[in-house]
Amino acid sequence: MSNTHGYLFRVTTFGESHGPAIGCVIDGCPPGIAIAPDDFTRDLERRATGKSRHTSARREADVVEILSGVYEGVTTGTPIALLIRNTDQRSKDYTAIAAQFRPGHADYAYWQKYGIRDPRGGGRSSARETTMRVAAAVIAKKWLAERHGVQVRAHLSQLGTLVPAAHDWSVVEDNPFFWPDAAQVPELEAYMDALRKSGDSVGAEVTAVADGVPPGWGEPIYGKLDAELAAAMMSINAVKGVAIGDGFASVAQKGTEHRDVMTPDGFASNHAGGVLGGISTGQQVVVSVAFKPTSSLRLPVEGLDTEGRVVDIVTTGRHDPCVGIRATPICEAMLALVLMDQALRHRAQCGDVGTMTPRIPAARDG
Ligand code: EPS
Questions:
Q1: Hey, which bits of 249-313 come out as E strands?
Q2: 314 C-alpha vs ligand 1 centroid, how far in Å?
Q3: Closest Cα to atom 21, ligand 1: which residue?
Q4: For the chain, N or C: smaller number of CB within 10 Å?
Q5: CATH number for position 95
């Protein structure tokens, strides 16, 4: 039932926000990758709640247990099972809304589909599920870096109406917003403090970028790299839009503007976002992802309960006023999982192909 991502690097996640544990099984991982429990710590902390006042206050240790697939610190090629036990559930926060529908939340759609739902923290529809994507992507990122020199990064590229005035990768990990302009961080702090006090929430945009992707990854027609990136990003809770390269801005561009001219020094631009015909060009792969505002709000609103009665709905609990902030490492993880899967698929079908033309350097990437 669609709990698995990928064809060759297959990641299946399981677990609910307030159940005993969450986990994943990674099948198809190449043997010989050195993996230790500590390797997961950094990325899981980047994604975790409770790290700043601007995200949910729930505190999970997110300690990874490696149950299989790793022997003497190295992947064996057999299924890798990872487990994280949930330790800080507060399920009583959900008692009042257990038989109500939060406007804008997945609980209504889950109820219509299954006729039953785990209301505690949204169950499977909780952002908690994304933890295992980040954990699985730690392995993918390691292989991509070691084998191909691919680096996958992400930053917040819009918070509500605020956009970065400058772009400096070196500051992104030094502030709680994954923001590429250090000078704007006080403005973001004030914006988020006011938002949190008001009880409202706001949307955001994340931009994920992969450097060093060789030309050739991606499978036309139905397995295009950009199509699979869009599907992977859309599979993250709260995502409402995905753009590759210039995305919707391409609508207003002329062909002479949009085309990425090739020169002996490299591509002159990267409007395509590193993908042509669903296949990587060797340029930066650039994907932007739009997140809706969090729907769990303490501000009361009239809505319906499961019996169709009009009720006042108030969501208590420890919610992110902007779920997009913590989504930065999640988008990065999904980009890595898609690239890893496409890399293995490319190797399987086209590993022996020697391309005749010289590789065009990606000289003008940002
Ligand atoms: C979430 C609500 C909050 C967040 C949670 C996602 O948790 P709770 O269900 O306890 O109210 O803390 O995120 C995480 C726990 C996590 O690890 O990402 C939601 O409604 O999606």
A1: 262-263, 266-267, 275-276, 279-280, 285-291, 301-304, 310-313
A2: 16
A3: 126
A4: N
A5: 3.60.150.10
In the chain, what are the helix, strand and coil shares in percent, each to the nearest 5? 35, 20, 45
Q: Which amino acid is residue 170, in one-letter code?
A: S
Give the rounded distance of the alpha carbon of 100 from its chain centre. 28
Ligand 1 centroid – CA 143 distance (Å): 30
Overall number of domains in the chain: 1
Does any ligand 1 atom lie closer than 6 A to the CB of residue 118?
no
Q: How far apart are CA 284 and CA 273, in angstroms?
A: 7
Q: In this structure, is residue 59 part of a structural domain?
A: yes
90 lines ligand 1 (CB under 6 A): yes
**Given this model, what pLDDT does residue 32 score?**
98
Query: In this structure, is residue 113 part of a structural domain?
Result: yes
Predicted confidence at residue 359, as pLDDT, reads: 72
Please give the residue range of the domain that contains residue 257: 4-350
305 neighbors 106 (Cβ within 8 angstroms): no
Q: What is the per-residue pLDDT for 362? A: 66
Cβ proximity of 66 and 176 under 8 Å: no
Distance 122 CA to ligand 1 centre (A): 8
Strands across the sheet containing 285-291: 151-159, 204-211, 285-291, 239-244
Token pair of 205, please? 């945009």
The crossing angle, in degrees rounded to 10, of helices 225-234 and 323-350 is 150
The pTM is what? Answer: 0.97
Quote the ligand 1 centre to 320 CA distance (angstroms).
Answer: 8
Structure tokens at 303: 């809505």
- pLDDT confidence of residue 264: 87
Q: Is residue 222 part of a domain?
A: yes
What does the pLDDT read at residue 355?
76
CA of 319 to the centre of ligand 1 (A): 6
Residue 359 falls inside a structural domain? no
Give the C-alpha separation, 205 to 158, whole Å: 5
3-state secondary structure of 269: coil
Q: Is 34 helix (H, G, I), strand (E, B) or coil?
A: strand
User: CB–CB of 184/165 below 8 Å?
Assistant: yes
Residue 38 tokens read as 């500590």
Our mutation pick for probing the ligand 1 site, out of 22, 47, 49, counting the most ligand atoms within 8 A of Cβ, is: 49
For the chain, which residues score pLDDT lower than 70? 362-366
